[in-house]
Amino acid sequence: MKVLFLNILIITLFGFLDANAQSSRAIYVSVHGHDKNIGDEKKPLSTIQEGINRVKEIKKTKFKGKVELVIGVGTYYLDKSIKLDQSFSGKQNTPFVLRAEDGEKVILSAGILLQNLKWKSETNGVWSTVVPSATVIEDLYSNGKRLIKARYPNYNANILPFNGYAADAISKERVARWKNPKGGYVHALHEGKWGGFHFEIKGKDSQGNLMLEGGQQNNRPSPIHETFRFVENIFEELDDTNEWYFDINKSILYYKPEQGTNPNVLKFETARLENIISLVGTKQQPVRNIKIKGLDFVCTAPTFMKTSEPLLRSDWTIYRQGAVKFENAENCEVSQSNFYNLGGNAVFVSNYNREVKISGNLIEQIGASAVSFVGDPSAVRSPSFRYENFVPEADLDTVRGPKSDNYPKDCEVSDNLIRNIGLVEKQVAGVQISIAESIRVLHNTIYDIPRAGINVGDGTWGGHDIAYNDVFNTVLETSDHGAFNSWGRDRFWHPDREKMDDLVARRPELILLDAYKTTYIRNNRFRCDHGWDIDLDDGSSNYVIFNNLCLNGGIKLREGFHRTVYNNITVNNGFHPHVWFKNSHDVFRNNIVMLPHQDIRVDFWGDTVDYNYYVKAEDLVKDQEKRLERNGKVITPKFKDVKNGDFTLLAEVPDGFVNFDMQNFGVTSGRLKKLADSPIIPELNYNKPKTNTASSVITYKGATLKSIESLGEQSAAGLPTMEGIMIVKFADDSYLKYNGFLINDVIVACEGEKVINTTGLDSLLKQFHYYHKLNFTIYRNQVKQEVVLNL
């Protein structure tokens, strides 16, 4: 009996030791391995796909320990995307880890290496080669450098937008030069510069006009911009160094290298896949506890022609794809990786996701957005999908919050360096959030962006924490936006201001049905030289904004409710309230401002606009004349180190203001801090003499009109440019008022002639003085329309 007991004890002990020995398993892959190998460190596999297969076999055995797939140094060309479903899930303490070998550079390429090319010299420095007949080339790289599709005008790194544009890019005269432009593309900005449009050329019609398909990339459609446009992938435009053109019908690739370079000595790659790794489970069985670490993601295919899904009533459309995609995932992450040379989005977190983390990554040189969190529109109650759309009051679902849980929640994007994105698409962001809840955006450095650095597309469902980010050099190729931008065209919001006023006055409970959690914007450093540092646009509600250093554009609040803004510093700028509601409950207090409040169409001033700190007495007087700032103060601030961006107050710290951290904006990891730039710190200008900028005002037919003179006025009216004249006042017997004009209408054309300012209108009125009627083009409630004035 004793012997039997001893044997059982020994067997149990050895079983315990064996289980401990097998608490983790690692499969190794190397470019020097072989897929028939065992897959350990000494005899690695050669392909990642075979490594994935081996991991799957381990998971089938119900192995409960940690599993790693370790990739050795080198470039791995994938012939299909890596799909990780719920069968790869780990446990919280024993996750599945897909990572680079320690200290090694591992590149996962969605492209394909073009081998055995035989280049021959053509004319004018152009070379050609035949490629395999099944090859499709949408992007081309030479020795890792992205080359330029043959385009007009030619690429110029110093010109924005589009690195070159021309009004005659699709003129009839230029199109006549192209024998067969089919397969080319037209890229253009929105008429209001609110993002961009992209069209594929399908050919020419019998009159020689281009036949175009596309243009669905912006959710506020307009004609394309008359100047900011270019064409690419046109053979006749192949005339500049590093341009290329692919004749898909003949499978011939043309390339113009730098003078003296023989392309036969270069390595060429082309994009093939849209996605490299997808972590996609089901709602019933999400992917859990998978970590991706230390990899380089490159060479995904461009996706701009697929960007078409509208995001509620924001200005966006999106395409749910990225180099890494998460859907139905929990406690998964991608970290310490590099994303570059991508045709579309870098990371897309789609629909149901919880505690997904994107951290410690470098994201640069990509075609679209860096990190996007986007939920399912069907999770939204009473959704509308265009600016001008709305659900009638009688049909509104009045239940608070989401309809389902099919959206990202409690996710994080932190310590990422994001720069030089939106190379193709212009309605992009460093971090995009829509139909999501409680997203943490922490310690990211974001710059060199065509539009917003951080964008929140709607109020569903708030709860975000946006903190310690460093965002600058934004809105470089578009207009009417901010380093941080948001919209809030939620259930309560109506495109007709009078109807919206009536609705929220009668039913204020509707306001926070979607934005039912407070979003915090705190401890960030923002600089936008082409808009606002913080831009809360149409309807954005339920925000608390504090401890932000705003270096140039100030803070704008438009058309929302329940915004509290305090303890911010607005360098060389101030507060921009636009089009406020009665009983908005907005609060703007205890902020350092360096200009008087730049209000536009504000008749009601919320709960508190007071207790702010001015650097010039005349600015405070201007605001007190508006019956504001009864308790405002003038201070003479002494900042610690303006030259190096430290605006800590050393003396005369006024009651109610608290100094905040000036040292911890942006990325925190050592490798990214070494790479990251910082914003230019402006020289303080409030003590400099100011030139006289009195507005030009005229009266006409019983109306007072003034020129559009500021970005704020342009934005409030929804104008594409800072041009036009606004009606600011009517006499009691105004003939313009009698003929249907309204206060805040902006006249932009008269009889088809552009109206730039009051001087221009006065000149046109004299020119057309004998007309029986005048046709005016105006903007009303941000909508362009025609009005006839009968004389």
TrEMBL record:
Lineage top rank: taxon: Bacteria
Signal sequence coordinates: 1-21
Keywords of the record: Signal
Location of the Right handed beta helix domain: 321-459
Pfam families documented for this protein: Beta_helix
InterPro entries per the UniProt record, alphabetical: Beta_helix (IPR039448), PbH1 (IPR006626), PDZ_sf (IPR036034), Pectin_lyas_fold (IPR012334), Pectin_lyase_fold/virulence (IPR011050)
Protein name according to UniProt: Right-handed parallel beta-helix repeat-containing protein
Biological classification of the source: Bacteria, Pseudomonadati, Bacteroidota, Sphingobacteriia, Sphingobacteriales
